[in-house]
Amino acid sequence: MPGAPLSDVLAEARRRLADGGIADAAREARLLVGGLLGLEPAAMISGGTQVIDEAKQAIVASAIARRIDREPVYRILGRRPFFGLVLSLSSETLEPRPDTEILVERLIPVAERIVAAKGSCRILDLGTGTGAICLALIEAVPGAVGTGTDISEGALETARANAQLNVLSDRFDARRSDWFTAVSGRYDIIVSNPPYIRSAVVDELADEVKRFDPRRALDGGGDGLDAYRAIAEGALAHLAPGGVVGLEIGFDQRQAVTELMQAKGFRLVEAASDLGGNDRVLIFAGI
Predict the structure, then answer these.
(1) Mean pLDDT, residues 187-216
(2) Which residues form the Release factor glutamine methyltransferase N-terminal domain (predicted)?
(3) Any known ligand binding at 127?
(4) Is 166 annotated as a binding residue?
(5) Is 150 annotated as a binding residue?
(6) 158 is in an annotated binding site
(7) Domain membership flag for residue 197
(8) Structural domain total, the chain
(9) 93 annotated to a ligand binding site
(10) Which domain holds residue 272?
(11) Which of 67, 111, 209, 266 would you label with 80, given CA atoms 20 to 30 Å apart?
């Protein structure tokens, strides 16, 4: 096919995605075409007559085929926005979701108070993946420094790359650890978005999740609580006086996680719901 106007390329992308069963085909077409061609949203609107050459059309066509095969848009693009940052993704990392930004929002005031009182705030992000939570916190709060841990070397490489991409490498350290096994010292904020889906449910998830997010970032064991048990067991020994533990949870796990944490010397100080009104964030302090 010879060169074609952007408006035609976008319309064809939208048509193919819709025919392929993609629910929000218009939005995803804009994301894919704009991301692949490096066009800002305004250019997508005003540049309809811009001619897209055959090579770029082929790139778009290949990406559309991948999306119809249920690969998520941001995985196709290789990066996604998160709380004002741009994060690279890899096969070893969970794709950060907007609901996780709520955890960041609730912890920013805590980090700011700690910096105001102590001059700094040490943050430990367990199961850091892309580094999303930790990097967003230290970017938002000058004086905060972070350590991200993960059992996956590939995830740690991605987190380090994201720290560099967002000019945060001087305040971020990534290290391999199975929860607290390689962690020493105390932190003002311990935070985690751990695997919390029951093993039996993982294979029932949407293809976009179960085929493209790493299973170990999803599977929380038989009852979905394995990671929370490990965190509850080790958190108090690594929490600085006046510090907090912030956790993302599944929609039906508030009571169970609260009981696990209370049994290990914590009290619930704040809870927050996600964009759909479900329980999603719990913040604990020592008793």
Answers:
(1) 97
(2) 8-78
(3) yes
(4) no
(5) yes
(6) no
(7) yes
(8) 2
(9) no
(10) 90-286
(11) 111
